[in-house]
Amino acid sequence: MEDLPQRFGKYFLLRRVAVGGMAEIFLAVEKTTHGSHRFVTIKRIKADFDRDDEYVQFFLTEGRVSLKCAHPNLPQAFEMGAVDGSHYLALEYIHGHTLLDVVRAGARHDRPLSIETAVHVGVCVAAALEHAHGLRDLDGQSLLVVHRDVTPQNVMISTSGAVKLIDFGIVRSAVQTHRTASGVVKGKFSYMAPESLTSGHEFDHRADLFSLGIVLHETLTGRSLFRGVTDNDTLRRVRTMPIPDVTRLRPDTPPGVAAVIARALERDPDRRFQTATDFLHALEEAAEAAHIHRSMTRLRDEVLDRCGEAPFASLTEEEHALIDAGGPGPDEAPAEAVEHAAVSVGEPTAKLLHDALARALVPAIPPYEPTAAPPHDPVMTPPFGVQSAPLPATSHRPPMRLPLLAPPEPTPTVPARLPPASPSRIIQTIDPVLMPVPLARRDPQLAYFLRKAGILPPGRRLPGEPSDPDLAALLAALDP
């Protein structure tokens, strides 16, 4: 175990909160703009797995999906990157308890959550799944996201009453560049749909709805539905055990709510709800018919009554001393493989275009080095009206690196570079899922470059995009 607290890039790792199969979770502090600080959660892949490509790709898939999510019932992801070869994901810090903690506390005192609160949690998780399942790429194609780990451990309830579905660690999605090995089952057996337990059997987002049905059943009854004495016993129960009607164990459950849970727990996926939207609408309609009034305040009070106040994050004297001693600020973040939701500003557009083409098309092109301070480029103005200042050539800011997930293979040097007067174009990220492309849509030649580099996906060409131009001639045109 490493000593804590410690610096980790621009973050200060304070405490290890949890350790999972392939990653560990830390409470951390980030130094933000103008010297302020905020608590964040750092999920970092374990050192034992950092050199295993399969585990790294699973981690990167989780990061890509998390960065695309923007929903009140999902945690906000700030960035993904690596420090000294150690991959991490920076996430919103949630102050609260897991649903598992709440259900267990209620069971110990024979005080299960109220029907209103259980339904409220179910509605929130269904809304989170609706958003995740609906994620699409730049061409409008579904990313086919399956969470695969909808469990009480992965439902957080904050002290303010917010419900968030966390941990996309074993998510399956079209953005992943790997495939789970044949015969390998990922997830917690007692919360998995029957079709996902069969080796080689195809399953889809409806498996998450079965898992949510289990979570709702257990939240209302306060007892495990399928967990057996052994893994084999659990698997047998998931596949064949008669599923008890929730009203037998919780008689005050409204029939409409019980019917929604029963349909979610159909073993045949075709007899379940077909989408999270269907699940969400059915649960809301059942709640309305039963005159159930959902309330964040009620949820917060019930959690507080059963679990007590969650400890507030605070700094010890040693941690204060470490942070006050100095550390990297927001402009000094490690330049390794960072993907984030915010647009980096302040770099000359010519450098961005040159470095992107150099890395994606001709890895041997040396870094662009302006000989004079470039003029302010209005194309670099980021969204939301934030103005970009020109970067002087004498600035000591570390050179920006575009968010490649791995450095290019070394090749013989080819002397070439683009001058500061090159056409003004911006490349914000090379991840084909995360990259906004409105500028590429207005520039057919740039769209051609991005498609040749694999940055834009193959398929429908943009209006005016060359169908089969000569790449060498176009590169030469940019470097007269």
Note down, in words, how this protein is organized.
- With 480 residues, the chain is α+β, with helices and mostly antiparallel strands.
- The chain folds into three domains: 1-93 and 313-342, 2-Layer Sandwich (Phosphorylase Kinase, domain 1), CATH 3.30.200; 96-312, Transferase(Phosphotransferase), domain 1, CATH 1.10.510; 348-480, no CATH class.
- The protein has 14 helices and ten strands.
- It has a seven-stranded antiparallel sheet with strand order 1-2-3-4-6-5-10, with helices on one face.
- A hairpin with a 5-residue loop joins strand 3 and strand 4.
- Helix 3 (115-133) crosses helix 9 (296-307), helix 4 packs across helix 7 (255-264) and helix 7 packs antiparallel against helix 8.
- The protein is globular.
Quick gist of this model?
This protein has 480 residues and is an alpha+beta fold. It has 14 helices and ten strands.
Tags for this model:
single chain; 480 residues; alpha+beta; Phosphorylase Kinase, domain 1; Transferase(Phosphotransferase), domain 1; 3 domains; 7-stranded antiparallel sheet; 3-stranded antiparallel sheet; 14 helices; 10 strands; 32% helix; 12% strand
